[in-house]
Design goal:
The chain is an all-alpha fold and 420 residues long. Helices cover 77% and strands 0% of the residues.
Length: 420
């Protein structure tokens, strides 16, 4: 092996280790994120919440994330993204401690979940920018996909941990344990980025303030619309899959606490397949194109959304199998949108493009679970779960239409080195 080959092999190994570490921070920060979902049936009963209120408490994190994106993310056009990343890691682990310590009902729960949102967006979106700037264009989809996969992995670990903890502790103690565990991400973040590593030059500095200029780009608008519809479906699955499984178990005679624990564990098993989804979806989009892979994956998840809620009487094995495919497919196209923005946006306004992309995406993610909860409250009981999941299937179908439109634009060739 030549000296040049040895150097390249060492460089690739170091890049892979760095990427794994940064992605690990994302996973660790996410550890408390799904704790509310796992404990939702118990919290709903204790606080006497309607389904709309239960969905709203969860969605308030996404609302805080979406609104903060408009002010926080444009700062990465002026200041190094790593600084915002490190500050947000600290903020995220601290704010997540507040919910199990202080929340006592709908108002306080909504407020505490809302303030966790800005910290989460300060980790997630600058993290995507750091990773995309570190890796060459040819591997960008894979690298961003792995980082987003860590986002989903943390959620799955959170659900799995809560399913075990709830069998032995109350929901507050269980939630607190997952929140404290997230502090390990602080140490890893400072080890990787605290000395300036990961601070990469930006082609041209912007003002650091939000500009609406990216909305004049038709390809960016279409990509953002596709992302919003993807997020609507994804967060319906994240919020309501576990309660759906609990409803299935309660209908079959299981006690509430055992049903909540088993439902959360089963949802974790289903959603754990989301963890490799963005990584594999990113690899696929590097090979066949962003829009082509997005159309394929969003079509698959949409079909399952249309089926899932009508399977209350299906066997547990059938639900688990379909749910695992569902978990994978709802997450796998995420890298298409996040990577595509970094390829379509102007370097000068990249932060604003990512901010608007995040705002509209998570705005839709806020609405999806709330609309689902409204359907559960208003529809006849025998139709409610089927109609709820079908609303997510409709969002996915609209997303496919948007991606087909984008695929036909010549500007789509700017993504994935010309692959559409």
């Amino acid at each position: 092996m030549s000296d040049q080959e040895v150097h390249r092999h060492s460089h690739n190994w170091q890049d892979g280790l760095w990427l794994a570490g940064v992605s690990g921070v994302m996973a660790l920060v996410q550890l408390p994120f799904a704790s509310y979902v796992a404990a939702l049936p118990l919290i709903r009963n204790e606080w006497e919440l309607s389904n709309i209120q239960a969905g709203t408490i969860y969605s308030n994190t996404l609302a805080g994330l979406a609104l903060a994106a408009l002010f926080v993310i444009p700062l990465t056009d002026r200041f190094p993204p790593r600084r915002l990343f490190l500050l947000s890691v600290w903020g995220s682990v601290i704010t997540n401690l507040l919910f199990p310590l202080w929340a006592t009902g709908f108002v306080s729960g909504s407020l505490l979940r809302f303030i966790a949102g800005p910290c989460l967006v300060g980790v997630y979106v600058p993290g995507i920018r750091i990773v995309s700037e570190y890796f060459a264009r040819g591997r960008r989809g894979m690298a961003v996909g792995l980082f987003i996969s860590a986002f989903h992995l943390g959620t799955s670990i959170s659900l799995a941990a809560m399913s075990l903890l709830l069998l032995h502790f109350g929901w507050r103690t269980s939630y607190l344990i997952t929140a404290l565990s997230a502090f390990s991400g602080v140490a890893v973040a400072h080890l990787l980025l605290g000395t300036g590593r990961g601070e990469f030059p930006i082609a041209s500095r912007g003002s650091g303030r939000l500009t609406l200029e990216p909305l004049t780009s038709k390809p960016l608008v279409l990509l953002t619309a596709g992302y919003a519809l993807h997020a609507w479906e994804l967060y319906v699955a994240r919020v309501w899959l576990s309660p759906f499984l609990v409803a299935v178990l309660l209908a079959r005679g299981m006690a509430p606490t055992e049903a909540a624990a088993l439902g959360a564990g089963a949802a974790a098993a289903m959603l754990v397949t989301a963890a490799p989804g963005p990584f594999l979806g990113g690899l696929l989009s590097d090979r066949i194109g962003r829009t082509s892979s997005g159309i394929l994956l969003l079509s698959l998840s949409g079909i399952i959304s249309l089926l899932m809620g009508w399977m209350l009487d299906a066997s547990w094995a059938a639900l688990l199998g379909l749910g695992m495919v569902y978990g994978f497919s709802t997450a796998a196209d995420a890298a298409v949108y996040s990577t595509g923005v970094t390829e379509l946006a102007d370097a000068r306004t990249m932060g604003s493009a990512q901010a608007l992309h995040t705002f509209f995406g998570y705005g839709a993610a806020v609405l999806g679970p709330v609309v689902f909860g409204g359907i559960l409250d208003l529809a006849p009981p025998e139709l409610s779960w089927g109609l709820g999941f079908s609303s997510a299937g409709l969002a996915a179908a609209l997303g496919v239409v948007v991606l087909v439109w984008l695929h036909r634009l010549p500007e789509s060739s700017r993504m994935a080195q010309g692959r559409r």
